[in-house]
Amino acid sequence: MAATAVRYLRSVGAATTAGPAPVDPLPRPDLRAVADDERLPVDPGEFRRVLGHFASGVTVITAHDPGDADGPAGFACQSFASLSLDPPLVTFMVARTSTTWPRIARAGAFCVNILGAEQGALCRGFAASGTDKFAGVAYEAAPVTGSPMLDSVPAWIDCRIQAVHPGGDHLIVVGRVEALGASDGDGPLLFHRGAFGRFSG
Predict the structure, then answer these.
(1) Which among 109, 112, 115, 170 is least buried, having the fewest CB atoms inside 10 angstroms?
(2) What is the extent of the structural domain holding 189?
(3) Is the pLDDT of residue 11 over 70?
């Protein structure tokens, strides 16, 4: 009986082996969050121009890893903000292409030096690449982490790195505040539409 069934199945072209018959795979769907025709790309130049209308303070982020033969590290940063009161957290953003960030990451700590209205030249020095940014710059060790605390800044915040998150072409660095201080000196250095300014009110 079984042999007769097999002969019949062969005569009509059916598969006689065990297991499922082969199936042509379905085409993979084109997965995307937003369709190409649902929004226009943002022009980078226009992005910078519009966002430049947001005035911000200016800081220098510094760090020092005792094992770093190149000495202390630092860079000018306007993308700094307070994040949390309990626990006390601050944040800054740094480009993924930064050559200074890996040195700060290895140190595991940093000091936020908030610049005063007359410290534009200091900011420009720390914004330059390929130079000794600390040449002629006086500083002392921050009280907890030992990160460079620049002389004459109106305020400073001594932090340990708590977390690092991806943010497009930047990294979002979260620091836990270990110590901080401020003076009653000059007002803040402001950055607006590509130029430095000062607060008047």
Answers:
(1) 170
(2) 45-198
(3) no
